[in-house]
Amino acid sequence: MAENNSDKNIVYYPGCTLHTWAKSLSDTFIESFKKLDINLHELSDWSCCQAVFPLARDNIMGLVPAARILIQAREHGDILTTLCSFCFNVLRRTNNAIQTDGEIRAKLNAYLEEDYTGDVHVLHPLEILKVMVGFDKLKSKVTKPCGNIKIGPYYGCQLIRPPKEMKFDDPEDPKLLDMFLESIGCEVVNFPFKVECCGSYQIVQGEDMVADRAYAILSNARKNGAEAIALSCPLCFYNLDTRQNLITQKYTDFSPMPVFYFTELMGMALGIDEGLCGFDKHKVDPGILLESLQKSSDTQEHVTVKNDQNKLGVN
Amino acid sequence: MKKSRVGVFVCHCGHNIARAIDIKSVMEKIRKYPGVAHVEDYIYLCADPGQKIVADKIKDKNLDAIVIANCSPNLHEKTFRDLVESVNMNRFKCEIANIREQCSWPHDQEREKATLKSVKIIESVIEKVKQNQELEPIRVPLTKKALVIGGGIAGIQAALDIANGGFKVILLERRATIGGKMAQLSETFPTLDCPQCIMTPKMVAVAKHENITLMTYSALESLEGYVGNFTVKIREKAKYVDWDKCVGCGDCTEKCPAKVDSEFDAKLSKRKAIYRDFPQAVPNKFVIDAEHCIKLTKGKCGVCEKICPAKAIKYDDKDEIIEEKIGAVIVATGFDLFGLEKVGEYGYGKYKDVIDGLQFERILAASGPTGGKVERPSDGKTPKDVVFIQCVGSRDPEFGMPYCSSICCMYTAKQAMLFKHAVPEGQPYIFCMDIRSTGKGYEEFVQRAVEEDGVVYLRGRVSKIYQDDDKIMVWGADMASGKKVEIPADLVVLSTAIVPAEGIKDLASKLRITTDEYGFLKEAHLKLQPVETLTSGIFIAGTAQSPKDITDTVAQASAAASKIMALFSSKEYIRSPTIARVDEDVCKGCGICVNACTYSAIELDTIKKISKVNEALCEGCGACAAVCPSGAMQQKNYTKKQLLDMISVATEDYDKG
Question: How many domains, in total, are found in chain B?
Answer without folding.
Answer: 4
